[in-house]
């Protein structure tokens, strides 16, 4: 149980950090600091990668036949991971839009 909580908190921490980086990227693009914005996207991606490692471990355990208990904390962690992934797409689109509008 304690291992599962630790994994879930790793996922939540990674997703939260990534989402913050993606938000910062949008704010930087708004100020026409596009290189810095791209750097924040890369930082967010790195944080998400750190979250994916423990996530993949859970998937591998379940695929190997081990029981992975789906509790509220794991559901929350999964939700945070998906939310961060969607936010990355939005951030990339916003950065692209700011670049197009900044050139006018």
What does this structure look like?
The protein is an all-alpha fold and 104 residues long. The protein is 87% helix and 0% strand. It contains three helices and no strands. Helix 1 runs antiparallel to helix 2. The longest helix has 31 residues, at 72-102.
* Secondary-structure class: mainly alpha
Distance between the termini: 56 Å
| Structural shape | elongated
- Percent of residues in beta strands: under 5%
In short:
The chain contains 3 helices and no strands. The chain has helices at residues 2-30, 34-63, 72-102.
Tag the structure with descriptive keywords.
3 helices, elongated, 104 residues, mainly alpha
What's the SSE blueprint?
Layout: H1 2-30, H2 34-63, H3 72-102
